[in-house]
Amino acid sequence: MSMYYANAQHLVNQVQHIMDVHAEREKTQVHTLILDVSAVAFVDITAAEVLSDFLEKLHMRSIHIAVMYLRDGMRHALENMPGLLMSQCCITSAN
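^ thats the sequence. predicted structure below, dont judge the formating
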């Protein structure tokens, strides 16, 4: 799977919706978001910007971010996201 300009905002909207449903059901906000990106092989610049904005907003809300099973393409996108410090995320490799 690839994250690119045509699907990036939709994917972020889906994750946000799941987080909103959780908050409503559990009466508490999400504290940690774990993203399994094992299926993501490529991220274009538009998708990287959308994802970076989303992750930065989560970080500003003190939501911890864990990204697991990174492939090289996704790792490269994360490492080059403007405004996102890799230290803000817990990263595990796909190996």
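The chain has one domain: 2-93.
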